[in-house]
Each structure stands twice: as structure tokens, then as C-alpha cells.
Design goal:
The complex is a heterotrimer of chains A (321), B (532) and C (300). Chain A is an all-alpha fold and 321 residues long. Chain A contains 13 helices and 2 strands. A two-stranded antiparallel sheet of chain A has the order 1-2. In chain A, helix 1 runs antiparallel to helix 13. Chain B has 15 helices and 18 strands. In chain B, helix 8 runs antiparallel to helix 10 and helix 14 runs antiparallel to helix 15. Chain C has 300 residues and is mainly alpha-helical. Chain C has a single domain, classed as MetI-like fold (Orthogonal Bundle), CATH 1.10.3720. The relative contact order of chain C is 0.14. The chains are: A mainly alpha (321), B alpha+beta (532), C mainly alpha (300). Chains in contact: A-B, A-C, B-C.
């Protein structure tokens, strides 16, 4: 097990370097920070000075190696746009993303799993068809359009929820969160719901197909034949078994949501890291984009690893050598 | 924030009660672009400017009126003297004096990490700034530099005392002034510790997301604004911003689309305010005789070098249709490269719209079968920019020119433009810096000493135009200066190194019960909002 | 309904249609797919206007509500957008673009993904490691940045969007094929083939491919609908198809600016078409997937 973890981490280190190189080159290809930063009346000397100050006058390989050397020393660089350390920028916005993803996750699990189990157990009921219909439709609407429709319906027509932005925050274990006050929660509801729709659909399907498969396994047949109460059957046998794929895929999905809820954050002007990434890409803020992608890739690596480990814990048959 | 905020609110409401003019209300405004920082120096975008104008003031107001200076006069060809307003205090309590002007000029000229500030380049000709007495300050320049008053509109005055400077400050041109260590960092501004100005508001908080809260500076020297607290939020998505207004999240939103004004007009709970703006939207044409990037003719010639082709391109465009159909009247047809309603601007006759005549001109120039061009447009920069670009594409296609419309995000656009990869591109220019700003920057030959042609991508080189611009650059007499601008403008409009399209209007939508008087420069500030 | 009865039904039914019997929603989806595809293919013939020809468009025809008369006397059934594009025509052509982009991107992604996945299985070792790490990279590389890179270097165009999407798709396929292939490799018949002296290529294409490709094919409709939505999102973010040749996604996102003011047709019509199209594909995809799942099929 330890060997397995170490080998994975080793491979991941190489992955991180390659990812940073790709993003570095990618941003270089997309736009020139000097052209974006320099004012319209900047003289040639101004531009040269600017390039020199940020090391942008160096050849690209030199720029990249300098960047790597700094990272090794724990310095991820300073944002071109904000003139502040990129880690500050990212961690300042991380709580906003985490809390909205958390709420979406809760909504997703709270609706998805019961709906999925119900569908799996009652395959012919009209309610099941309705659920299946809703989840397929939910899957089919582009996220950005759904977000705009949410705003239109709940903020503009019904006027029950705020359209955009983040509400007041309260301090929780040193994090600024809006999850713990009613007004803040109101602001969170639409973006969280927008993320949750896809999650609900996904988890309903996972739970449904899981239920269907598990219910016809021999041990379930046996348990049913033995006369175990349905409540216990679902709670103990069914849930435990369908949770494995749900945990795995949800963990992967969690990473994707944290890293790339860009569309939702953009439409709702939610000041999280997804919006930061998108803004930074568009504004040619290379240090932010590169650092962001390194951190995100690292997070994916860890999530995958954790999922594999949890998988092993949940299913004793799996052993890593 | 909790307690201190409550205290501030209490204090503010008490003073409001005492003054009897204002009510203890919060004004909530939504910006269309996030202000980058509370630091008023490095960033030149409109929203960062809007935000800092609540807190900091300049010698000259954006509308050319005296602000922290009460008047100014040219002492000689190379020196201009400003008389400063007396009885003005910074929010820290320190009195505003000439020393603060010298200090702020030093900071303006100083490049943090090599990065120029808003008008560092523009104020390059300033050789010295001298505090003659507490309320008189003299700017000396290398040569006559008449547009210095235009540039000083962007010098936000900081407090020398707040920065811990005790004695006199000696100006030098690179901004070192021997006080480099005293300059507050951007973080000092963002956390509020250095954000000390003479303006009507002080920062309560600023976040890197572009959200800011402001509290009224009750010791403000001028007329106290009505709102004792201002919340500024950044909502770049147009639809979301207006939806926020309709949902009651905001009192004022800037830059609603012409389309959304229809909703506002129908709903008695909301209203909008508009003022003709300073921004001229135009298309730059690379007139280089060796050809232009992205422009190809069958015979390998350079169509845009021929003035008849440029005129044909201009005549094919129905500007009236653009302003009426795409802007619902919230834009003015352009006939030159500066709004004619701008103070001191020349007034050229209207540009013709005639597709048949345009076709004839094109044929006369030898392009009866048309040619191909790539029209470059920033996707996310100008109001309705993509629609206008498509309209232009329609007109030019009908003229017989094959148009490839290329839209891309601003950063990509800006990079390719700077690298000279664009022969034809759409652009907007409009800071409150006088009527010659556009032509002097975009069409004059590059001359860093005179501040001319910093962004000339048109390869335009006409002796009459050139002479007028060079004379204008050093002309301190306003009347003569205007004449020179008119001469240059007439030449540019005749030669069309670019095609003027329209002047943008500035728009604000707000809830009913507010009165909003915006400036042409399009700043969104709480001071311009009053309740009925 | 027992499986035995189903399988022993009339043999005249096309085997392709077997999964759809008794599933009205899936049949409706199938019909939907046919209608949309046909409309997309025939768009140049049935559309009243060529919305890609800028010379035919006129802003003076802009923002007309449905059933209005245009300047040339023709009637715009579903109204026009701001630059005078007839929405019906734009939607027909947009469907074409959306479908084309999705199908081509998925096909490229599938072929590349399947081949690389199989190579990873056959070769193993460092080849496998390199391919799989490349998969990890592409999966976490932001699509917006990729699309923006292509846009900045090559300009906007349908081909760039296809490339950007295909790069995201190959990785998922490679991963899936590798997983299936690995489990297949452990089976006795492969070992037997090896002993029998069959070469790598032969084993790869004769034994592994048929087994590994079925999950890929089953998921293909899902991948196509996903690609349609992904293209729409890229267009929404301003890095999609050229604005003069709008796809459904770009039409929706342009139309959003007009939703509030009540000009619903500009966004809602392409929006509904896109949702219905994706829905049709998804319903069919679901059915195919359930049908392919032995647990469900046995007790269908």
C-alpha cells in the first residue's frame, strides 16, 4: 500500500512539471502580458522596462526555469494584474468556491441518492419515469443557459433570490464563509443549485443502476429470502454496496467542481477561484494561471489517490500491492 | 467587521442627523468591470478610476473644472503654476498642501517593478515640481507642454504626511525623490491603511474581487454626498447586472445594454440616465503601400493605400442605421475622430453614406471585383462591439469586399495588434484628455518627445496633418490649439487612415426615486446620485 | 416481460431496433434524432435565408418578432436577431454546425482514444505510463485555455473548435478502452492466441478491439450530446465558432441579452432546439446503455 502511494506520488510529480510547462507555453502563445499591461500611450522604452521588470524580456526557456526555481523555494510568483502573490489571491477566493461546491454536493446527495434508490427499487412506477425524465432533461440543458434561466425566473420574475454576487460572510475557523448566515445562504442558493442539477442527475443514475445491480446479487437475494426487513436491507446491504461507485465518481466530480465551476461562478459573479482562473486566462495573468493549474493538478492527484484508498477500505476485496 | 461597522454606522447616522442633509442610507452600485485595486496609481481602466475617485481627488477635475487647484496659469513657455485650494484636509486630518502635490508627482513618476503608472509616460516632459509656498506649486517642463492639465486629471493626490514624510521633497524625473521607501505598496492601499485622500469617501473595505465598501468622509471640504455608505460590487455579466437591479440587489448599475433599457422604460420602478460620452469607436486601416496584414488583393497590390478604397469602405457604412438599430439611439453618429460635443472639438460635416457611389469608387481604384480583408474586433471590450462588427461586415460584403470577421478576447486582440498583425481593426478611444487625443495618438507619426503617435498602426504619414499635430503639441494658447486640431482633423477625415463610426453614450440604470447626473467620461460614482 | 419472450419475438424486426421496443421515450428520441439530422443536412435547401452569407443579412431587419415581414417582403416565421438573421434559418444552420462539430470531434476523439488505449494495453510498461499520464494531463487541462490557444494562434473557426473538443474526448476513450483491454488481456483466449504465434497487431485488432470498442460505441451518443453542450459553452465563453457562423450555443448565448426585454425568440428557440436535440440523443443513449448492461437486460 505504501509502495503504491509512493509510486503514484512520484509519477504525479512528473505530471505536475509537464502540466506547468504546458500551461506556461499555452499562456505565452495566447497573449503577451506587456501588450495587455502597458497603457495606450506607453513608449517603446516603457514597454521594454515593463518586460524587463517581470523577466518577460528573457527567452521563454529561461523564464520557465526561473519560474520553476522560484516554485521550488515556495514562491509561486506575483500576479501581473493584481500585483499580489498568487497564492494569496487563490486562497482568498478558495472558501467561496468550497462553500458553494459543498452546498451543491449536499443538495446532490440529498436528492440524488434517495431518488436513485427509489427508481432502482420501483422500476415500473410512474414516479420513476418522472424521475428519469427529469434527470435526462437536467443533463441536457447547457449549464450556462440554465444559470441564466435561474436568474431570470428566481431573481427577476419571482424576485425571491438575489441574482448575483456573494452575500455577507461570517468568520468560521478563520475562513470567511457565507454559509452560516441566512442572508449569505440566500446568495448561495442559485449558484449552488446550478451546480447541483448535474450532480443530482448523475447521482440519481449512479444510485439507480447500482441499486438495480446490487438487488439481484446473490447475497441480496439471500438476505431477502432470509426475511431481513427492507429498511435494514437498504440501510445496511444496499447502501454500503452502491456507495463505492458513488464515492469514486463523486470524488472525481468534486475535484472538477472545485477546479472548474468557472461558468457558474462567471454567470453569478461568484468570487471564487473558477472565476479567478477564467479572468486570469483572459487577462493574460500567467503567474495565476500556472500556479492555479499546478495546485489543481495536485488536488486531482490527491483526490484520485484518496478515492482509491477509500475504495479499498469500502471493498475489502481490493488490495494494492 | 461587526462592531466597528456598527459604530461607524451609528456615527454616520448621528452626523447625518446633525447635518440634516443626508439620510442614513446605503447606496449599492454595480460596476461592469471589477476595479483592480484601491491603489489609484498603476491602473488606467475606468472602473479602478471610478472607485478611487470616491477617495482621492486631482488638481483638475475630469470635466476640466478646478478641483484641488483653484486656478492655473502659464508662467512661461515651460512653466505652469497652480494655486491650490485652502482649507482642505485629508481624511487623516492632515492639511493638503503643495508638498502633497510634489509627493504625488514623485509617486506617479516612480515605476514599481518597472511598471509605469497611469500617466507616467504622459508626464515624462515634467522636469521639476516646486512647492513655491503651501498653496502654490509650479510644474516645469522640457518644452511647452500644453496638455499637461489634461494629464494632471489622472494624478490622484496622496498625503505626504500619512506616508511619514516630514520635510520638503525634491522632485526628480524618475520619481525616486529620495523617498522611495515611503511609497505605500498596493497591499497598503487595498487594506486601507494607505488609502488616505481628500475625497468625499473613505474605504471601509476593498477586496481583490473588485468589491468595495465606502464610508462618507464627514470632514470633506466640499458638498457632502448624500449617501453615508456605498457598496460597490462588480458584475461583469451584462444580463446579471441588470437582473440584479431588477431584483433589488443594486440601486445603480452602470452600462446597461440598449436592449435592457427597454425593460427599464416599461417598469415604473426603474429609470435610466444617459449622457453622450467621450469614446469614439472607429476602425483603423493600415495605409501602408507595401500592404497590410490580413488584406489581400488578387493582383497583390495594397488596396488600403488608396484613399478611394478607404473612402469607399467608409461610404458603404450606414452609421445612422447602426446607432438607431443596434443602440436604440444611445450612440451618436461620428463624423470625425472626437465627439463634436467635446469642448474645443472641431465640427466636421457628416460623412456620406452611399453604397452605389462607394462601389463606383472601388471600381475606379481598380478593385471592381473587390478584395479580401480580415476585420479584427475585441469580443469583450466595447458595448455592442460584436453587433457593430457584424453590421460592418454586412456593409462591406455588399460593397463586394470579402470580409473575414475575427473576434477574440481583449488580451489576445491587444497582443496581436501590438505585434502589428492587424491591417484592419475596430478600436475605441476616449479618455477625458482633449479633442486631439485620438488623432495625436493613432494617426501622427511616432514622436515620444512630443507624446505623438504612441499607437499609430495606420502607417498614416501626411505632411499637412503632421505639421499641424507637431505645432499643436507645443501650443499653449487654447484658441490657437483648437485651430490646429481642426486643421489636423480635417486632413484626417479627408484621408481616412481610419473610419469613424460613432460616439458611445454613457448609460446608467437605477431604481426610481434617484436622480443621476453622470459625466461624459463615464465614471460611476456615488457623488452623482441623489434621491428625489 | 421476460427476456426469453422478447428475444423470441418476430424476427422481422431490424436487430438495431430491438433495444427500442417497448420504450416509447426512446423511440421518440430516435425519431427526434432523425428529424434533427435530416433538418441539419437539408438546411441549405429548406432555410429561407443563408444566415452565413453576410451580404444577405441586414441590420434593418433586426429584432423582428416571429411572423413579421422582412424588408424584402418575405415573412420571418420565428423572428430575427439583432443583426437581421432569420432565427429559423439560423437555427437550421446552427444545428448543422453543432452536430458537425460534435460528431467529427467525437469521431476523432474515439479513433485516437481507442488506438492509443489499445497500444497502452499491448505495449504496457513505459508506453502505457506515458499514454496514461498524457490522459491525466488532458483531462485536467482547462478546455477554455486550450480553445483560446487555438483561437489566438490560428484564428477562430469550426475546425479549431473540433480540435479543442477532440483533445478532451480522446483521453476519456483511451482510459475506458485501456480498462476493458486490461481485463481482456488476462483471459485465456489471449494467452492461447499468443501461444499460437499471433502477432501484437493481430491480437489488438482481432481480439481486443471488438471487445473494447463496445463500451465506447455504447457511450458514443452520450459523448456526442456532451460535445454539443461543450461547444455551446465554449461559444458562450467567447472562444467557440466565429460569430458570423453561429452554432446553436452561440445563438443562445447571443440571445440571452434579449431575454429580459421580452424578445424571447432569439434565445429560447435555439435553446429549445438544442435541449430537444441533446435530450433525444440522451434518451436513446440511455436505452442503448441499459440494453448493453447484462443485469438490466436479463430482467428487462
Amino acid at each position: 500500500m505504501i509502495n503504491f502511494v509512493l509510486r503514484r506520488l512520484g509519477q504525479s510529480a512528473i505530471l505536475l512539471v509537464i502540466m506547468s510547462l504546458l500551461v506556461f507555453v499555452g499562456m505565452y502563445v495566447v497573449s503577451d502580458p506587456v501588450a495587455v499591461m502597458a497603457g495606450e500611450d506607453a513608449t517603446a522604452a516603457d514597454r521594454a522596462a515593463l518586460a524587463a521588470a517581470y523577466g518577460l524580456d528573457q527567452p521563454l526557456p529561461v523564464q520557465y526555469l526561473t519560474f520553476l526555481a522560484n516554485i521550488v523555494q515556495g514562491d509561486f510568483g506575483t500576479s501581473f494584474v493584481y500585483g499580489r502573490p498568487v497564492l494569496d489571491l487563490i486562497f482568498e477566493r478558495l472558501p467561496a468556491t468550497l462553500e458553494v461546491v459543498f452546498l451543491a454536493m449536499v443538495l446532490g446527495l440529498a436528492f440524488g441518492i434517495p431518488m436513485g434508490i427509489f427508481s432502482g427499487l420501483n422500476r415500473r412506477k410512474p414516479a420513476t419515469r418522472l424521475i428519469s425524465m427529469i434527470t435526462t432533461i437536467g443533463y441536457s440543458i447547457p449549464n450556462f443557459w440554465q444559470a441564466l434561466l435561474f436568474i431570470l425566473v428566481f431573481a427577476v420574475w419571482l424576485r425571491v433570490l438575489p441574482a448575483t454576487g456573494r452575500g455577507p460572510t461570517t468568520d468560521f475557523l478563520g475562513l470567511q464563509l457565507s454559509l452560516f448566515n441566512a442572508e449569505g445562504l440566500r446568495y448561495m442558493l442559485l449558484p449552488a443549485a446550478n451546480l447541483a442539477v448535474a450532480l443530482i442527475c448523475m447521482q440519481t443514475r449512479l444510485a439507480r443502476s447500482g441499486t438495480q445491480e446490487v438487488m439481484y446479487q446473490d447475497y441480496m437475494m439471500f438476505a431477502r429470502a432470509k426475511g431481513i426487513a427492507p429498511r435494514r436491507l437498504i440501510g445496511r446491504h444496499l447502501l454500503r454496496n452502491i456507495l463505492i461507485p458513488i464515492v469514486t465518481i463523486t470524488a472525481l466530480e468534486l475535484g472538477t467542481l472545485i477546479a472548474f465551476s468557472t461558468v457558474t461562478e462567471t454567470v453569478f459573479s461568484w468570487p471564487g477561484i473558477g472565476k479567478l482562473l477564467l479572468d486570469s486566462i483572459y487577462r493574460s495573468d500567467r503567474p495565476v494561471v500556472v500556479a492555479y493549474m499546478i495546485l489543481i493538478t495536485l488536488m486531482f492527484v490527491l483526490i484520485n489517490l484518496a478515492a482509491d484508498i477509500i475504495y479499498a477500505v469500502l471493498d475489502p476485496r481490493i488490495r494494492y500491492s | 467587521m461587526g462592531k466597528s461597522f456598527l459604530a461607524a454606522l451609528l456615527l454616520a447616522s448621528c452626523s447625518a442627523f446633525a447635518a440634516g442633509t443626508a439620510n442614513a442610507e446605503t447606496l449599492r452600485m454595480a460596476y461592469g468591470t471589477a476595479p483592480v485595486s484601491a491603489d489609484p496609481y498603476p491602473y488606467s481602466d475606468t472602473q479602478t478610476g471610478s472607485l478611487s475617485e470616491h477617495v482621492f481627488e486631482m488638481l483638475v477635475g475630469l470635466d476640466d473644472t478646478p478641483l484641488l487647484a483653484t486656478g492655473w496659469a502659464w508662467e512661461s513657455d515651460n512653466a505652469i503654476v497652480f494655486n491650490l485650494r485652502e482649507g482642505v484636509n485629508f481624511s487623516s486630518g492632515a492639511p493638503f498642501t503643495a508638498r502633497d502635490v510634489v509627493y504625488s508627482m514623485c509617486r506617479m513618476m516612480y515605476r514599481v517593478d518597472g511598471r509605469a503608472n497611469v500617466v507616467t509616460s504622459a508626464l515624462g516632459p515634467v522636469t521639476d515640481v516646486v512647492a513655491i509656498d503651501d498653496h502654490t506649486v509650479r510644474f516645469e517642463t522640457t518644452a511647452p507642454y500644453p496638455i499637461i492639465t489634461q494629464k494632471l486629471k489622472f494624478l490622484k493626490i496622496l498625503s505626504a504626511e500619512a506616508a511619514g514624510i516630514a520635510g520638503d521633497i525634491t522632485f526628480d524625473r524618475d520619481g525616486d525623490c529620495g523617498i522611495v521607501d515611503s511609497y505605500p505598496s498596493q497591499a497598503d492601499f487595498d487594506t486601507g491603511s494607505a488609502a488616505i485622500g481628500t475625497g468625499p469617501y473613505i474605504y471601509e473595505s476593498f477586496q481583490a474581487t473588485g468589491d468595495a465598501n465606502l464610508l462618507r468622509n464627514d470632514n470633506y471640504w466640499g458638498e457632502l454626498p448624500e449617501w453615508d455608505r456605498v457598496e460597490i460590487r462588480s458584475v461583469p455579466n451584462n444580463g446579471a447586472r441588470i437582473a440584479g437591479l431588477l431584483a433589488g440587489d443594486y440601486d445603480v448599475v452602470e452600462r446597461p445594454s440598449a436592449e435592457d433599457l427597454q425593460v427599464i422604460e416599461r417598469d415604473p420602478n426603474f429609470a435610466y440616465s444617459t449622457v453622450p460620452g467621450l469614446q469614439t469607436i472607429f476602425i483603423v486601416l493600415d495605409t501602408n503601400a507595401d500592404g497590410a496584414a490580413g488584406v489581400t488583393a488578387a493582383d497583390g497590390s495594397a488596396p488600403l493605400a488608396d484613399v478611394r478604397v478607404r473612402q469607399a469602405l467608409s461610404m458603404a457604412i450606414d452609421r445612422q442605421a447602426i446607432t438607431e438599430r443596434l443602440f436604440a439611439g444611445n450612440a451618436t453618429v461620428a463624423n470625425q475622430f472626437a465627439p463634436s460635443y467635446m469642448p474645443g472639438a472641431p465640427k466636421m460635416p457628416d460623412l456620406a453614406t452611399d453604397l452605389d457611389a462607394a462601389k463606383a469608387l472601388l471600381a475606379e481604384a481598380g478593385y471592381a471585383d473587390g478584395f479580401e480583408l480580415e476585420l479584427n474586433v475585441p469580443a469583450d471590450r466595447y458595448t455592442n462591439g460584436q453587433l457593430v462588427a457584424q453590421a460592418i461586415t454586412q456593409y462591406w460584403t455588399r460593397l463586394g469586399v470579402k470580409v473575414i470577421l475575427r473576434t477574440e478576447p481583449w488580451s489576445v486582440f491587444q497582443t496581436r495588434r501590438t505585434e502589428g498583425q492587424m491591417g484592419v481593426f475596430m478600436y475605441g478611444w476616449g479618455h477625458p484628455q482633449g479633442a486631439a487625443q485620438l488623432i495625436s495618438g493613432a494617426f501622427a507619426q511616432r514622436n515620444d518627445d512630443l507624446g505623438l503617435g504612441a499607437a499609430n498602426y495606420s502607417s498614416y504619414d501626411n505632411p499637412v496633418f503632421e505639421d499641424a499635430m507637431q505645432a499643436w503639441a507645443v501650443e499653449v494658447d487654447p484658441a490657437r490649439s483648437n485651430e490646429l486640431v481642426a486643421q489636423a482633423m480635417a486632413q484626417a477625415v479627408a484621408d481616412l487612415p481610419g473610419i469613424p463610426l460613432y460616439y458611445n453614450h454613457e448609460l446608467w440604470a437605477h431604481r426610481a426615486g434617484l436622480q443621476l447626473v453622470g459625466g461624459a467620461e463615464g465614471r460611476t460614482v456615488a457623488m452623482m446620485v441623489k434621491s428625489n | 416481460m421476460s427476456a426469453i419472450k422478447r428475444l423470441s419475438g418476430p424476427s422481422r424486426i431490424d436487430p438495431f431496433l430491438v433495444p427500442f421496443r417497448h420504450y416509447p421515450a426512446a423511440i421518440a428520441g430516435l425519431v427526434g434524432i432523425c428529424v434533427f439530422t435530416l433538418a441539419a443536412i437539408l438546411a441549405p435547401l429548406i432555410a429561407p435565408q443563408n444566415p452565413f452569407d453576410q451580404g444577405q443579412l441586414d441590420i434593418m431587419n433586426g429584432l423582428l418578432p416571429p411572423m413579421s415581414e422582412m424588408m424584402d417582403g418575405s415573412v420571418s416565421l420565428l423572428g430575427t436577431d439583432a443583426v437581421g438573421r432569420d432565427i429559423l434559418s439560423a437555427v437550421l444552420y446552427g444545428m448543422r454546425t453543432s452536430l458537425l462539430v460534435a460528431i467529427v470531434a467525437v469521431s476523432i476523439g474515439m479513433v485516437v482514444g481507442v488506438v492509443l488505449g489499445l497500444v497502452a494495453v499491448m505495449r504496457g510498461g513505459w508506453v502505457d505510463a506515458v499514454i496514461m499520464r498524457a490522459v491525466d494531463l488532458t483531462v485536467s487541462f482547462p478546455g477554455v485555455l486550450l480553445a483560446l490557444m487555438l483561437l489566438a494562434v490560428f484564428g477562430s473557426g469550426v475546425d479549431k473548435v473540433i480540435l479543442a473538443l477532440a483533445i478532451g474526448i480522446w483521453a476519456q476513450n483511451a482510459r475506458m478502452v485501456r480498462a476493458v483491454g486490461l481485463s481482456e488481456m488476462k483471459k485465456d483466449y489471449i494467452a492461447a492466441a499468443r501461444i499460437g504465434g499471433l502477432g501484437d497487431l493481430r491480437i489488438m485488432f482481432h481480439f481486443l478491439l471488438p471487445n473494447a470498442i463496445s463500451p465506447v460505441l455504447v457511450l458514443m451518443p452520450m459523448a456526442i450530446s456532451g460535445a454539443i453542450v461543450a461547444e455551446a459553452t465554449l461559444s458562450f465563453l467567447g472562444v467557440g465558432v466565429p460569430i458570423t457562423e453561429p452554432s446553436l450555443g452561440l445563438l443562445i448565448s447571443n440571445g440571452n441579452d434579449y431575454l429580459l426585454s421580452g424578445r424571447w425568440w432569439i434565445s429560447v428557440v435555439p435553446g429549445l432546439v438544442l435541449v430537444l436535440m441533446v435530450l433525444s440523443i440522451n434518451v436513446v443513449a440511455d436505452r442503448l446503455r441499459d440494453h448493453a448492461n447484462p443485469y438490466l437486460q436479463a430482467r428487462g
